[in-house]
Design brief:
Blueprint lengths: L8 H11 L1 H11 L6 H23 L2
Helix pairs in contact: 1-2, 1-3
């Protein structure tokens, strides 16, 4: 089995922001992936909040 490149935190955060932070949150819980590193968790929840604010803004425009 060859060595794989790791996905950067920045990529994980951008994917969560664009495609679904709930899935990222579930993966953290079930797979214990990036569930302890405080700096990542702060950034993760900030992107989740931005995502929710954007969704709220879109719903307010309807």
């Amino acid at each position: 089995m060859g060595r794989r490149r790791r996905i950067s935190e920045r990529t994980l955060l951008l994917m969560g922001l664009a495609f679904g932070w709930p899935g990222g949150w579930l993966a953290q819980r079930w797979l214990r992936h990036k569930s302890i590193k405080t700096s990542f968790l702060v950034k993760f929840w900030l992107t989740a909040a931005l995502n929710l604010l954007a969704a709220g803004g879109l719903l307010a425009c309807l």
